[in-house]
Amino acid sequence: MNARPPGRPRILSRERIVAAARRIADDEGLDALTVRRVAQLLGTGQASLYRHIRDRDELLRLLAEDVAVRLPAAGDRPDPRERVVGQWLDAYDYLSRHRWAARIIAEGEYVAHGASAFADSAFDALGALAGAAPGAPATGPDLPRAYRVLWHLLLGHVLNVHPVGHTHAAVHGEDAGRGTGTGARADVGAHPDADAGGATGGDAGAHGANAARDAGTHGAHATRDDFAWALPRVLDGMFRTP
């Protein structure tokens, strides 16, 4: 029988190490990811891990590769435009569950060859959209450039969850003239005694707590809404789709 005897530790592998590293990055953040922390989670010593990985840099490279191979394909939506929009929204949803991965990708230090499947699928979908665009030549627009534009749009929205510098009421679609004191100071960390629509003292402190909570909600939901709003408009501009 191949059953593992009771009490015998599971055999270490790169797959187990990467899975543990991904869990730490998801739950505790990328800064908490160390070889020691991975060993602790796996119930083993650091020396055991060094038989499979050289150092933290290699661990990050393996994580980048693990993320890349899981990026979603375009799917089989019949409409070319919906296929492109759907793939990039799926990619946003995926990376938003692993925001540390967007940070690794944006820094550009680790090349993940596993992203080729995502890129091939994206190019096919973009090519189909180019062919469907009214009056478009057979080759369509510059597809590599269009791909890079969408990639930068995606990373920008995933990384820009915290609305730093976007504290004006108009940015959040609110009427600045209402004087309600909500939304005008939505940045986390705003001084609780700052003027917030006329609130002072305890009212300002309560507003500060509410603003921090609202900022978190805005980051989690409105950023995706912003991406979903921007994506088709960028496509329309590049491909002149109706």
Account of the 3D structure:
With 242 residues, the protein is an all-alpha fold. The chain has helices spanning 14-28, 35-42, 46-49, 56-69, 80-96, 99-107, 116-132, 143-159, 201-239. Among the domains are: 14-53, Homeodomain-like (Arc Repressor Mutant, subunit A, Orthogonal Bundle); 68-159, no CATH class. The protein is 58% helix and 0% strand. The longest helix is centred in the C-terminal third of the chain and has 39 residues, at 201-239. The chain is elongated. The model is unreliable at 175-217 (pLDDT under 50).
Q: What keywords describe this structure?
A:
single chain, 242 residues, mainly alpha, Arc Repressor Mutant, subunit A, 9 helices, elongated
- Poorly predicted sequence stretches spanning 5 or more consecutive residues: 175-217
What's the alpha carbon Rg, rounded to whole Å?
A: 23 Å
Structural class comes to mainly alpha
Helix fraction, binned, reads 55-70%
- Shape assignment: elongated
Secondary structure tally: strands = 0
Enumerate how many helices there are, as a single number.
9
In whole angstroms, the N-to-C terminal distance is: 63 Å
Strand content: under 5%
- What number is the mean pLDDT? 77
What's the SSE pattern?
HHHHHHHHH
Quaternary structure type: single chain
Major sheet details: none
Task: Give the SSE map.
Elements: H1 14-28, H2 35-42, H3 46-49, H4 56-69, H5 80-96, H6 99-107, H7 116-132, H8 143-159, H9 201-239
Helix pairs in contact: 1-2, 1-4, 5-7, 5-8, 5-9, 7-8, 8-9
